[in-house]
Amino acid sequence: MLEHEERLATVLRTVSDDVRTRPTLVADVRRGALRRRRRNRILGGAAVAVGAALVASAVAAGGLRSVAGPETGPENNVGTGGPSPSASTAPPVPVNCRVEKLPVPAGHPRSRVTGGDPGGRFLVGRAYASTGYTDRHPLLVWDGDRMTTVDMPGSDESFDDVNGSGVAVGFSFGTGDRTTAYVYRDGRLAVLRPPAGDVGAGVAATAVGEDGTIAGSIGDVGRYQPVVWRDAGAPAQPLPLPDGHLSGRVNDVDTDGTVLGTVSGPGSPGHEPGDRGYVWTPDGTGRLLPLPQIDGRPAQSLWVSTIHRGIVFGRAVTRDDKMMRSYPLLFDLRTERFTMLDHAFGLVGNSLGWMVQEGDRMAVAAPAGRAELPPLTPSAARAGEGVAAMSADGLVIGGHSNDANGEAQAVRWRCATRA
């Protein structure tokens, strides 16, 4: 559940033409930008600018970087590379990735993927009826190559996650920019209810597990309370925050219903120093995830993204007055062991330590090798292309790639492996 909205620069490309026919467009674009910022805070967006700090990835060229933990505590369990294969098998390497344009409704020149299930069967996304600004979008569910269109009430609507049964969750903005959470299941869209007594609060659903557990948040700008729906037909249940943390957000739900989130201390919610990974087990018990040691000092933050079968993918963060550094890693809830991932840097990854490296030469990078993610249009610039979902085995990746006109198109990359 990562940043999948258009960047404001992309939205503004056609403003000058549209303003002549729609005088309210500037206000609409400003409102859309504020909604994107709010959506990213709710989702824990993958690409966040923090002040004027320079963000650097900490990737050791050509090898793995060793880090030490403190003398005591689970943080001492730090390794490098990826999950260890058995002695009789070589670690898999991605090869021969191919790109496929996903079907979209006619008359929609732009589209993008916003989520996917761990098995790689389902993707969710949305389409755009204009190359300029629009705040209403048909939502899309792809089961393989079969597309289903869903009409969610409200505006700036989005599905943000889907499970292997095709259950999708998301939210939209309504009057006063109050959010409403929805679940799509068996061809029907239904509202997810807030906790009893919180009928006036904005509600967002951001993750769904393979067992049907749905999680998200309630609240408004400035403070969010994580919640869970163990039963989609019942009111949400608040997930308690640890002492000293005033806000939280949900990042993912594991196969057994364990909820992965991020909790924040005093100040604005988001990617701030002191943010910590947190898990709530199916019985409601919660615990903070430890901080690893980076170059002999504890990291200042742990930003978590996904969880699969007890293994968390995220990033440790250190910062000073001039720079913020981000270190991709895995954390195993069972062994309390960190694994630092120094073979690449990516915001989207999985429990195998595979990551998507974005940029001019997009690639899926495993600890033992990498493969290029080819563009939809070889001659098109790759600026603004991105990825929203990676399957648990790393072989199916959902995102968007530019067409010959420079417009984003929802795509799926499929890769093979070799030992």
TrEMBL record:
TM annotation in the entry: 42-64
Location of the region described as Disordered in the Swiss-Prot/TrEMBL record: 67-95
Entry annotated with the keyword Transmembrane: yes
Name of the molecule in the record: Uncharacterized protein
Organism: Virgisporangium aurantiacum
Domain of life: Bacteria
Sorted UniProt keywords: Membrane, Transmembrane, Transmembrane helix
